[in-house]
Amino acid sequence: MKKDLLGIRDLSKEQILAFIDEAKKQKAKVKNKQLRDCSLKNTSITTLFYENSTRTKMSFLLAGEYLGAYADDLNIATSSVTKGETLIDTGLTLEAMGTDIIIIRHGMTGSAHLLAQNVSCSVINGGDGTNEHPTQALLDVFTIAEHKPSFEGLNVTIVGDIANSRVARSNIFALNKLGANVILAGPSTLHNANMRALGTEIYTDINRAVKNADVIMGLRVQLERHKACQFPSLAEYAKFFGVNNQTLKHAKEDVLIMHPGPVNRGVEISSQTMDSPHSVIYDQVENGVAMRMAILKYLVS
Amino acid sequence: MIIKNGRVIDPKNNMDEIMDVLIENGKIVAVEKNLPCTGHETIDATGCWVTPGFIDMHVHLRDPGARHKETIASGTKSAAAGGFTTICAMPNTSPTVDNEIVVEYINSKAAKEGIVNVLPIGSITKGLHGEELSAIGEMKEAGVCAISDDGKTVDNPSLYRTAMKYAAQFNLPILAHCEDLRLVGKGQIHYGEHAETMGFRGIYPEAEEIIIARDIILARLAGAQLHICHVSTAEGVELIRQARKNGQAVTAEVCPHHFTLIDEDITTYDANFKMSPPLRSKPHRDALLQGLKDGTITVIATDHAPHHEDEKNQEFENAPNGIVGLETALPLCISELSGLMSPMQIIATLTANPAEILGLNKGSLSIGATADIAIINPTQKHTVDKNKFASLSKNTPFHGRQVTGQVQHTIVSGKIVYSAK
Ligand SMILES: [Zn+2]
User: Fold this and answer.
1) A134-280 — its CATH code?
2) B199 touches A: beta carbon within 8 Å
3) Which of A147, B6, B33, B61 has fewest C-beta within 10 Å?
4) Domain A8-132+285-300 annotated CATH 3.40.50.1370
């Protein structure tokens, strides 16, 4: 059994492509209601989420169920975490109860790595601080692969709160490994020049950033950033950095619009654009379950 | 006691020669060649350096308040194992050292269980809250050697100016921890490409540089003696260099971890690499080395900050700042600085220079001085093993590192308090 999936940074291009292939197979099975795969029979998975999530948590629980696992969520709000139990102790407790795979989301960078070092069961990083959200990036590249023949030379523009986004970072790592060009765009307060070291170009002019884009990926604007005065107002954000049908004119004709959700309609992406044929936002949700099935299968294989 | 055939390095007296050192009644009575051994306990120091015992201006003992991390007994044992015969204890204990009663508590504890000299440092403000002055005069009377709100910057410049001016009349230096916490924000490691790679929010070097600049200007206004703790940035060094050129009473220390490691050495999310200020990038580290070489930085201090293993083995952001340093300082100095500075210069940063800043009658091998001495094998290679530390805490990023230079004996007032096994 593979131990953990902590970040895209640790994965090879071949491994990412293998995940995409496996996710394709799983997606077909889910579509055809052929859920006889019992790869995870007698396997127990637990989601341990210190931050809110609908999509990631639900899709992992579903993915587990579809593969025949016992899947459950540790409700942090009613658990002993509220009594001050440490992350490591909580992990050891889950392990003692027979959990084979813990999916953790935590607000602090490196917390999934800390857990993985201190338990012998598998750990999947469901998002750690401002670091990585590898399963989101894998489902994103899977979604792109469904619509584009190759990643080589593909222009992917990521727009929004880059500095605080683990989704952006994992996508940057994944897309670079796959041979795509990654362009970042957003207010100057929400990115920094060091991100060029990750292999990206950076623009504050969104029309310039989406020039010849094959994919535009919006990121969620965290309302608390707005409160921390990173930009003056949501209206101003939408005006300068929102993606709308005007923006699309600068991109390629068959550009894909993506977003990890949940979307603030009219802020990151206009309603019109979101409901246009360019949008694959709901495909992403659907693909989330299939990709997480692929990841769970990989860990028990 | 007689120490035979060692290379006596005594910066205060500008001596670097093979000599014998004779100690009687806890005092140094002769430093000469070929002293007769008759009737004396003899230490053969052939091949070793014989230096004044080291003085560490920046140590966190955890008594009162957190004796599970370090006691005065364990902290002074750790000091002795590192060649330190005098350590200055920072006031951020619980309760804070902000009045003479806590100073007296530490003094009496040190007299009872300490095996090296412990000099308390008083806080600048009550409870380190930055609001009201501590009992600076009464603490001076009780024996503090300096004042500091280490761990924090005194935010209010008006209060700080007052504190500096008040301390100056008692000849107390200000030991300044320079960091604007609002600019640090949620930063975890040095701001730069490496923080980006690791997914950490960065700590801007400017958070330190701004406060160093402010504190130098404030100290000039107040006529105070200012000592900058653990400088970690290139521009910080430059600001200090300029102030010293202008003749201002400004000194600075650097920690061994800041001149040994850089941000890129943080490759896992191990909080044993977390300290304040953080490990900086290579250009900053090189500027620290240059500052040491050209005499801008005249002190090496450890910022020894013991923490329990469980406190460090948690989320990086939740883990406390700091590492233990007393037992790794000398080997890191010899390993990292030997190509850059002479043995005399290195030893001065650990002895005569801190003594001068604090106005201590220590840090030399002068005739009549108290016999506080370190005997060092400068070529002994070994591997840092945290499990052999005398400190109660094991929080070090240097476990397993190959180093050169080992303390053989530490002598306090003519008595051996530590010998290498
Ligand atoms: Zn400090």
Assistant:
1) 3.40.50.1370
2) yes
3) B33
4) yes
Question: Where in the sequence is the domain holding B77, given as residue range(s)?
Answer: 72-363+381-401
Burial pattern B212-229, b for ≥16 Cβ within 10 A else e, equals bbbbbebbbebebbbbbb
- Contact (Cβ atoms closer than 8 angstroms) between residue B362 and residue B86: yes
The residues near A295 (Cβ < 8 Å, ≥ 6 apart) are A5, A19, A63, A124, A135, A138
Residue A222 has pLDDT above 70, yes or no: yes
- The answer to whether position B228 is within a domain reads yes
- pTM assigned to the model: 0.94
Quick: pLDDT tens for B230-285.
Answer: 999 999 999 999 999 999 999 999 999 999 999 999 999 999 999 999 999 999 99
Single-letter amino acid code for the residue at A39: S
Q: B10, B56, B149, B303: which is the annotated catalytic residue?
A: B303
The yes-or-no answer on residue B20 being catalytic is no
Residue B77 in domain: yes
Radius of gyration from C-alpha coordinates of chain B:
20
Cβ contact B256:B302 at 8 Å: yes
d(CA B276, CA B154): 16
What residues of chain B score a pLDDT lower than 50?
A: none
Q: Does A89 touch chain B (CB under 8 A)?
A: no
Pairwise CB contact (< 8 Å): A110 & B199: yes
pLDDT at A180 over 60: yes
Q: How far apart are CA A77 and CA A74, in angstroms?
A: 9
Residue B318 contacts A, CB cutoff 8 Å:
yes
Write out chain A residues lying below 8 Å of B195, CB-based.
194
Mean pLDDT taken over chain A: 93
Q: Give me the half-sphere count of Cα atoms (radius 13 Å) on the Cβ side of residue A7.
A: 25
CA–centroid distance, A89 to ligand 1, in Å, is: 31
Domains held by chain B: number: 1
What is the distance in angstroms between the Cα of B319 and the nearest Cα belonging to chain A? 11
A8-132+285-300 against A134-280: fold identical: yes
Name the residue facing B269 among A110, A130, A192 (closest C-beta). Answer: A110
When mean pLDDT is compared across A124-128, A162-166, B103-107, B273-277, the lowest value belongs to A162-166
- ipTM computed for the complex: 0.91
Q: Where along chain A do its domains lie?
A: 8-132+285-300, 134-280
B313 contact residues in A (CB cutoff 8 A): 88, 114, 118
Structural domain includes residue B296 = yes
What is the pLDDT averaged over residues A136-162?
97
CA distance A30 to chain B (A): 34
CA of B60 from ligand 1 middle (Å) equals: 10
CATH of residue B395:
3.20.20.140
pLDDT in the model for residue A178: 98
